[in-house]
User: Fold this.
Amino acid sequence: MVNGASVVKVQKFKNGLTCAIKKREDLNSVTVTVWLKAGASYENEKNRGVAHFLEHMLFNGSANFPPGYIDREVESIGGEINAATSYDYTYYYITAPAECTERVIELLAELVLNPLLSEEMVEKEKPIVLEEIARSQDNPQEVFVEKFAEKLYRKAPYKYPILGFKETVESFSAETLREFYRKFYTPDRMVVVVVGNVNESQTEKLLEERFGKFERKPEKIPTPETEDVGERSGEFEMKSSLVAVPYVQMGWLLPPANRNRDVYLELLDSLLSSGRSSLLYRELKEKGLVFSTSSNYQNLLFGSNYSVTLMTETVEKAVEKTLALMRSIEEIPREEFEIAKEKLIKNEIFSRESGEAEADAIGFALSVMDEVEYFSEYIEDLKNAKYEEFLKIVSFLKEKPLIGYLIPQ
Assistant:
């Protein structure tokens, strides 16, 4: 799979696990990531927050190493280890010097494939995760964003917080974690990505040895409900004594993430809020209507969304002007579209200089979107984007959005 001189070698092992290797001779490092289609979207009413809790638990000891050993070992070779849980995926990664590739693969395989998930460590981890939830509830902006998602989505799992709820987390046992792990941490839902200055054939053998022998029978998993795309107009208000300046969010529901549409929605982001030449900056920030503004396309498997946020003391004027700009989106000249396209292409080329960023992009493409072209053809897709198609796809901005106001008490 080629993007310019860039080649991603993709292989599926007999056990159903997919691996991808991207050789980068310009790097002295290697990044190895394990991606799983096992995020918060796949939880139920009884185990909200289990995907995130499980991510924590994988760092609490394995079949062969005690808690903390893998972290210390990664640090001893000058590396970095971390993980993250989102709605549609969870991933784990290690970045280290390229000469440590074999050790990195060994450590990451041990972390992901052989966790202990002991009752003792579950009880030790609970206060940490509960503290995370408490901190998020003390942050008015986080509470507001959660409330916004709850109002925007009615069916899709994105209306629930990734951290889960105090009540569900308190109820977790080791068996809760093991059940989710057995069900979702299966080879067919797993993608391992290696980006760095590595020998491809040797690396593939190492991956097959460590990951290709991992066996677990896939279970039939119900697909989470997909959100109906339709207008979510309406307004709501939240007050907080911890807020100094009003914060406004506008949101539109969109169809599930899709390679052909996503390129245009990221172009819209570039046009609206990338840099000082962007539309929102020129029309809102430079004219003193807002302190700051941004836009964001969230590409999700069961219903995406687009949002625009404002921080402003002139709420009514700023909202009125923003809605007018959105309604007039079809008046954007072709020249501005082409500038946004060029800017996005350059940003993408620059971001790909990082091995970690490439590993992330490849992992998302293969594990969530199930097509490596989502990554490998992205720049070509941008170059081929048509102005007329762009206007068609962004016409949703003329619809009334859901508007939320977070204002000082």
Summary: Confidence is low (pLDDT under 50) at residues 1-5. The chain has two domains: 2-210, 234-408. The domain at 234-408 is CATH 3.30.830.10 (Cytochrome Bc1 Complex; Chain A, domain 1). The two ends are 55 Å apart (CA to CA).
